[in-house]
Amino acid sequence: METRRGAARCLIVDADHEVRALIADVLRADGHHDVECVYTGADALRVLEERPSFDLVLGELTTPARDDALLHQEISTRWPHLVPRLICITHGSSAGVSELRAASVPILVKPFAPMVLQAVVTQRLAAP
């Protein structure tokens, strides 16, 4: 999946409105105008079912998406093309983080600097 700078479609998943807004602002300032924000893993699954063409999914990937299945597991199973385009944002160690690390998913611990987010997004979007 090839994306030129500024063309990425990004899905942000976070229960905290301020965090979602901050991430969206950083991504838009970096040229990613197509940014969608959702509150829960279940919301993310609904959006992905309707529009699976996102280039990047970032946020709380270790939260339950449906019936206690973690969001990253659901994405890995249903949309495997997105696995190299996942970024986990967390408050620290939580259930599922070690599994994500083992799968080479970058983990950003809140709070993080906007420049760190931009660098990780650029790196993930460059992934094949």
Architecture overview:
By secondary structure, this protein is of the alpha/beta class. The protein has a single domain, classed as Rossmann fold (3-Layer(aba) Sandwich). About 40% of the residues lie in helices and about 20% in strands. The chain has 5 helices and 7 strands; from the N terminus they run βαβαβββαβαβα. The chain has helices at about 15-30, 40-50, 70-80, 95-100, 115-125, and strands spanning about 10-15, 35-40, 55-60, 65, 70, 85-90, 105-110. The strands form 2 sheets. It has a 5-stranded parallel β-sheet with strand order 2-1-3-6-7. α4 links the parallel β6 and β7. The radius of gyration is 13 Å and the shape is globular. The protein starts with 8 loop residues before the first strand and ends with a helix.
Q: Name the CATH superfamily classification.
A: Response regulator
Give the class from helix and strand content and strand pairing. Answer: alpha/beta
Using the coordinates above, name the CATH class: Alpha Beta
Rounded to the nearest angstrom, the distance between the terminal CA atoms is 6 Å
Which architecture name does CATH use?
3-Layer(aba) Sandwich
What is the helix content? Answer: 25-40%
Mean pLDDT: 85
Number of strand segments: 7
Q: With helices defined by DSSP (H or I, 4 residues minimum), what is the helix count?
A: 5
Q: Provide the number of structural domains.
A: 1
Low-confidence stretches: none
**What shape does the CA trace take?**
globular
The portion of residues forming beta strands comes to 15-25%
In the CATH scheme, what's the topology name?
Answer: Rossmann fold
- Lateral arrangement of strands in the main beta sheet: 2-1-3-6-7
